Amino acid sequence: MSRTETAVVTNQNLEAFFFGRVHEAIEAQDFQAKDDTIHYLINLLALFGRSDHYNDTQLNGADKPLALMLADVHTCSNINEQNKILKRLGDVALFISGFFSDSLNRKIIDVDYYVAMGGSAYGSLCIGTRGTRRESTLSPVFAELSEKFVACVDLLNEVSASANIHNDSDILRTYELWLRTGSKRAEKILRALGIEPDKNSELLFVQ
After folding, report:
1. Is 116 found in the same domain as 66?
2. What is the DSSP letter of 137?
3. SS3 200
4. What is each CA distance from 154 to 73, 112, 191, 197, in whole angstroms?
5. pLDDT score of 141
6. Looking at 48-52, 58-62, 68-72, which range is the least confident one?
7. Which residues of 80-93 are buried (b: 16+ CB within 10 A; e: fewer)?
8. Helical spans, DSSP H, in the chain
């Protein structure tokens, strides 16, 4: 995002900004989801786009490793608190894997770990919210987020993308992302570059 664009965003409603960006990405990715799920994704981006919300989530434990959040779920006997932690886990995993997948690919814990943890958290949340009066209406949203977690990551990748692939290292990371997660966006990028994804073959580059 350029300095000029950043200045514009700070002077407009974040929900409105991400509404436009998400719907552009939906068209580019041919993403299919219920309106409530799309609205949830827009709100998620708007919330994490606010520094005060980020600081609040840090205080509430969102800066914890995902495995420790999951441990908190298992040690908590209150269903409402469990749901709260699962939602935080799913949201953090989705946001990080959607906006910072390139940096994750250079770490020991890769993007597929976040995909597995986030998808599982939303799946458990779908079940856990069915019997609650307050959050039962969100159960179908969490079900779709779990089922289409990789597609949602692709969507956020599209929103955050600021440049095309430039070198062999970037292409290799994209291929690895496709191998690990089955990302439709990564597959589309590879095909556009003339590379036919094949899980039974290796992609090698001569340095």
Report:
1. yes
2. G
3. coil
4. 27, 13, 15, 17
5. 95
6. 58-62
7. eebbbbbbbbbbbb
8. 3-10, 14-29, 35-48, 51-59, 66-75, 79-99, 101-104, 111-129, 139-147, 149-160, 168-181, 184-192
- As for how many domains the chain has, the answer is 2
Looking at the chain, how many residues does it have?
Answer: 207
Other C-beta atoms closer than 10 Å to the C-beta of 138 total: 20
Q: What gap in Å lies between CA 79 and CA 117, rounded to an integer?
A: 19
Is the distance from CB of 34 to CB of 26 less than 8 angstroms? no
Q: Tokens representing 40?
A: 């949830």
What is the domain range of residue 21? 3-162
Q: What is the widest separation between alpha-carbon atoms in the chain?
A: 58
Could you tell me if 135 and 163 are in contact, meaning their C-beta atoms sit under 8 angstroms apart?
no
The tens digit of pLDDT for each residue in 149-159 reads: 999 999 998 88
Q: Pull the structure tokens for residue 146.
A: 């779990």
Do 110 and 47 lie in one domain? The reply is yes
- The CA distance from 36 to 102, in Å, is 28
For residues 57 and 108, state if they share a domain: yes
Measure the CA–CA gap between 206 and 204, rounded to whole angstroms.
Answer: 7
Does 158 lie in the same domain as 61? yes
Decide if 184 contacts 150 (C-beta within 8 A).
yes
Is the separation of the CB atoms in 31 and 183 below 8 Å? Answer: no
